[in-house]
Design a protein that fits this description.
119 residues; 5 helices
Length: 119
């Protein structure tokens, strides 16, 4: 009897946020939000998915993968968004609560600062 070592595939939940107006991110460069309020005003939660890595998230969130015949179009429009495929400026939150912004190539981790009013 031969024994095989099976490496388990570990997947985690990721929450996907698309930028409401991705044009500045594409033209001026990718800038993550600094404050929680800015994040909530300029990005919309699109979905949650299970994936092995951020790169898998990117591949899975391309329109031809998750909406090959336009199934997501009405969902995207209801959220006030204009793009189906993940692109530079979109954000992913991992299962630990870490935030990453999609760059033109790769990802950058960032932190959000909650606003404190009245100080």
């Amino acid at each position: 009897m031969s024994s095989r070592i099976v490496t388990p595939i570990i997947v985690h939940e990721y929450t996907i946020f698309y930028c409401v107006d991705p044009t500045p991110q594409m033209v001026e460069g990718v800038n993550p939000p600094k404050y929680l309020g800015e994040f909530h005003s300029k990005w919309r939660e699109v979905t949650k998915i299970n994936a092995e890595s951020l790169d898998d998230v990117f591949a899975m969130m391309q329109g031809e993968s998750w909406s090959p015949t336009g199934e997501a179009r009405s969902h995207i429009e209801r959220l006030g968004l204009t793009h189906t495929s993940m692109s530079a400026g979109d954000i992913v939150r991992d299962y630990l609560g870490n935030y990453y912004i999609c760059e033109h190539v790769g990802w950058t981790r960032f932190n959000l600062i909650p606003e404190v009013y009245g100080l």
